[in-house]
Amino acid sequence: MKTEGQPTYVLITHLISRILKNDAKRLSQAMVVRRQAIKGLTANKNIIIMDDMNDTPGTLAIQKLRGLDDTWANMIQTAESVDLANRFTYVYQNEKNLLDHILIIPSFQDEFLRIDKERRCQIFDVDLSNHRAMMVRLRFAN
Question: How many CB atoms lie within 10 A of CB 56?
Fold first, then answer.
């Protein structure tokens, strides 16, 4: 994918499920993905990390993916712009969870904020999966 003529690397990530208490494995997977992201960040590449992380914001795996515990750029959690009532992608036993994430590099923040808040990040049902779909819009200045 290219943004303004520059390559953007999209790391599609499906981490192991939380059902069997796989926290250590999921954290290890997140560490591998973060290492790949750091390779791109050190080379000034555009990075997006997205898909089914099987974990909620604030957990160790998501903190690791976002880079909240290292010296490299902290990825932006795009779902924070979605109203709380709709900020979920999966329902299990009537509990709503945000398990799917789209994380963008800080240099995309302006492109993200150029979009009206209600359209920046949208989560909606598509009946193609047991997870709700998530879409992020970025607008690059001309």
Answer: 15
pTM: 0.93
Domain ranges, ordered by start, for the chain? 2-136
Report how far residue 25's alpha carbon sits from residue 1's, in angstroms, rounded to the nearest whole number.
29
Sequence-ordered strand ranges (E) for 53-107: 76-77, 90-92, 95-97, 100-104
- In angstroms, the CA 32 to CA 21 distance is 19
Strand blocks (E) in the chain = 2-3, 6-12, 46-52, 76-77, 90-92, 95-97, 100-104, 121-124, 133-136
Instruction: Confirm if 90 and 132 have CB atoms less than 8 A apart.
Output: yes
* CATH top-level class of 2-136: alpha beta
Tell me the pLDDT tens digit for each residue of 58-86: 999 999 999 999 999 899 999 999 999 99
Three-class secondary structure of residue 78 per DSSP: helix
